[in-house]
Amino acid sequence: MDFRRTYRSAAVAYVDLVSRVPAGRWDEPALGDWTLRELVGHTVSSALRQVPGVLGTPAEVVAVASAEDYWALARSVPAETYAAAVAASGDDARATGLMLGDDLLDAVREMAGRATQAVASAGDDDVVTTAAGGMLVRQWLPTRTFELVVHGMDLAGAIGVPHGMGPEALAEATSQAARVAVAVGDGETVLRALTGRGELTAKFSVLRT
């Protein structure tokens, strides 16, 4: 699976999703206490806007070896550290949503273009500086695809349209979630559920919530 291609396809699908949000609905609820504008703000910030900057900032050593290790960090940090990160993410979602202005589609399209251009020129084994520490590009970029796919599904569900994510992007995000489940000790639970041998609890997540 080509991690660049899946990222590009997810970015294109996400821009298309934004184009389908009715103009008068941006302040409606979307996910938790986020409005549609704030949900898009979070996704843009985490999966598009930061990509050129991260890919352009080398790190000296690999501190996080894989995409699953990146997500698993949320389970190992102190509760107060995690709570602060969640609060900061909410603040950023609101600020970015406002920054996108009235022409959200053009702003999102422009950032997607910059991100995919940066991806095209990055080396697979370049070590870059991420929020979690140094990572290989081929390990970090799939975490951004994950953000686009999962929050693309959130956006699609909130406005009642198909998400439009391609099968490769869906497969990458799903397999990544399964690997996170193993990394945090929930692998057996997830495998049993996927094979009809068990059930997941309500609101089950491999990510810390």
Give a description of the structure.
With about 210 residues, the chain is mainly α. It has 8 helices and 4 strands; from the N terminus they run αββααααββααα. The chain has helices spanning about 5-20, 35-55, 65-75, 80-100, 105-120, 135-160, 165-185, 185-195, and strands spanning about 30, 35, 125-130, 135. Strands 1-2 form a two-stranded antiparallel sheet. It has a two-stranded antiparallel sheet with strand order 3-4. Helix 2 (about 35-55) packs across helix 4 (about 80-100) and helix 7 crosses helix 8. The longest helix is centred in the last third of the chain and has 23 residues, at about 135-160. The protein is globular, with a radius of gyration of 17 Å.
What is this structure's SSE topology?
Layout lengths: L2 H17 L9 E3 L2 E2 H20 L11 H10 L2 H21 L4 H18 L5 E4 L2 E4 H23 L7 H17 L3 H8 L15
Antiparallel strand pairs: 1-2, 3-4
Helix pairs in contact: 1-5, 1-6, 2-4, 2-5, 2-6, 3-6, 3-7, 6-7, 7-8
Summarize the structure.
With 209 residues, this protein is mainly alpha-helical.
Helix-strand string: HEEHHHHEEHHH
Oligomer: single chain
> Which structural class do the helices and strands define?
mainly alpha
Proportion of β residues?
Answer: 5-15%
